[in-house]
Amino acid sequence: MRNTRIEVVNITESINKYFIDCINSGEFKVGEKIPSENTLTQKLGVSRASLRVSIKQFVALGLMQSYQGKGTYLVSNNTCVFGNRGLVAKQDYKDIKDVLSFRLLIEPEAAMLCAKTADDRDKLIEALEQSYKKMEDNIQNAELFIEADMNFHIAIAYGSGNSVLGDAIAHIFASTMHRHKQINNLFGFKDGLSFHRIIIDAIKDGNAKKASSCMHDHLMHAILEINKLDN
């Protein structure tokens, strides 16, 4: 097993990268049990809590399966669910960031308004949950996953009660479909699911500040990750 200790700030992302490297190299084999939590925490120098967060993400994406009292097994080696950056040309990064930056200007406000003043919150939450479920069910199908992702954001935009804002987001998605496919190639399926779950819960609880800040973090995270790739 590798001896690399993880010392970067974003612990979960670093554990994810370690797992991906182990899968791609064949160190972790499909059908076999991965090393125990004790072994991994000592080897990587991370907490048990951080390790479990990462394992849960791999389970959610269909790569691992945990069994009570037995440990965690690798059930798929399809690491493309974390993104396939080789499909996106570096010269496209600016256009992708432009789309995300535009969305960053208005979507946090839309999420805040949804949590604060949504006319029919129950109906909105139902629509968001349906989109989220469709995303979960289509982790291996980028086309359907992206469609559900877009519908999620459009529902929030219209749920704000401002039809102009809703029309703007619907238009930006319709006119930049290619860019959003590239975003999926860059980052895969994990980030959308994790951020969307928190956003739904914040809107459901009427927590406008949290809904806005999480939408901001969702989009800013993608922008910052592209900046890293572009350097």
Automatic annotation (TrEMBL):
<dbReference type="InterPro" id="IPR000524">
    <property type="entry name" value="Tscrpt_reg_HTH_GntR"/>
</dbReference>
<dbReference type="InterPro" id="IPR036388">
    <property type="entry name" value="WH-like_DNA-bd_sf"/>
</dbReference>
<dbReference type="InterPro" id="IPR036390">
    <property type="entry name" value="WH_DNA-bd_sf"/>
</dbReference>
<protein>
    <submittedName>
        <fullName>L-lactate utilization operon repressor</fullName>
    </submittedName>
</protein>
<dbReference type="InterPro" id="IPR011711">
    <property type="entry name" value="GntR_C"/>
</dbReference>
<feature type="domain" description="HTH gntR-type">
    <location>
        <begin position="9"/>
        <end position="77"/>
    </location>
</feature>
<keyword id="KW-0804">Transcription</keyword>
<dbReference type="Pfam" id="PF07729">
    <property type="entry name" value="FCD"/>
</dbReference>
<keyword id="KW-0175">Coiled coil</keyword>
<keyword id="KW-0238">DNA-binding</keyword>
<dbReference type="GO" id="GO:0003677">
    <property type="term" value="F:DNA binding"/>
</dbReference>
<dbReference type="Pfam" id="PF00392">
    <property type="entry name" value="GntR"/>
</dbReference>
<dbReference type="InterPro" id="IPR008920">
    <property type="entry name" value="TF_FadR/GntR_C"/>
</dbReference>
<keyword id="KW-0805">Transcription regulation</keyword>
<feature type="coiled-coil region">
    <location>
        <begin position="118"/>
        <end position="145"/>
    </location>
</feature>
<dbReference type="GO" id="GO:0003700">
    <property type="term" value="F:DNA-binding transcription factor activity"/>
</dbReference>
